[in-house]
Amino acid sequence: MNATPDYLEYQPKPAVENTKHSTEQILADNSSIGQENAGSIKQLINNVETVIRGKHNEIKLVVTVLLAGGHILIEDNPGTGKTVMAKTLAQSIAGDGNNNSLLFRRIQFTPDLLPMDLIGSHVFDDNSKDFLFRKGPLFCNVLLADEINRASPKVQSALLESMAEHQITVSNTTYPLEKLFFIAATQNPIEMEGTYPLPAAQLDRFFMKINFGYTDADAEMDIYRNYQQIDKNVKIIHQVMNMETIFALQKSAEEVFVHEEILRAIYNIVNDTRQHPDITLGASARSGITFIRCLRAYALVVGRSFVIEDDVKSLAHAVLHHRLIFRNREARKMALDEIVNKEISRLSQLNLYA
Predict the structure, then answer these.
(1) Which residue ranges make up each domain of the chain?
(2) Are the C-beta atoms of 276 and 6 separated by less than 8 Å?
(3) Confidence category of residue 1, pLDDT binned at 50, 70, 90
(4) Which of 63-67, 133-137, 156-160 shows the highest mean pLDDT?
(5) Strand 279-281 versus strand 208-211 pairing type
(6) CATH superfamily membership of 50-252
(7) For the chain, which has fewer Cβ within 10 Å, the N-terminal or C-terminal residue?
């Protein structure tokens, strides 16, 4: 009997002649991608870190989702900096709402919130003697959806069309959203009172779900010593990136090189989640595409023009875990790591860029 479970089996494809040469050529052609954009990205991250201390990796993930053209969900206990993080990033790229600045909106989700409070509603105009559509806060560039799981499922579902298709349909009319539309949503753990778990269809629209967690001892002591200055920084945070720069960075992210074997690894990971005995709902093809987009953006954020196997390990949990349904709590802790570690082990033996 074969000791390797079926869902972990993989037969590598025969090596393609001249693959190494073509890879080297592509890397040489793309060598300037990471260098050209490193300054803008570093400036954005540093700006956020004037307020958010001890969360460098988490900030990089949020910026990664922005450059990948997606939306991010931040979950953790109250007081860990979720809302301040999202607001600081939004202000760093949206400014104060004046001319030539991105439009930033914040929605505090509550149990009595209605869908029309998000998308807008028709109001009667005395001059035209007709009903006119008044746009809601979803018509913006950067949206902070605070405590999204405190609103009812009806309100949560109102976000689906905007997140998936960048448009909103009211009655028989479809209204396009802004070309740049980024949602940074926060939520408290679903075990807390007064919360509604997000449906699987909506969770799948978030490119990543990350947990902030508590800072380490040094970072927390730094916060205690300098909380007055941090509070001032929150109020005076300045814009360091405009819309044109974001579009340019998003375009550069799409040009980041992804090796064929890393694409194969993404397929294997996604496919294995569908066959693993401890996972009842595996990842979709859309999950794989999202994974690749995030890998490209992440490589750009860290200053590279190509994706490496460590990037796959760094992003797998944030991109895939919230899209899966597990049989039990133990499976939630172990199953995805088991699949990812197996693929990382395979990739590490190939020496892709040797």
Answers:
(1) 1-30+256-354, 50-252
(2) no
(3) very low
(4) 63-67
(5) unpaired
(6) P-loop containing nucleotide triphosphate hydrolases (3.40.50.300)
(7) N
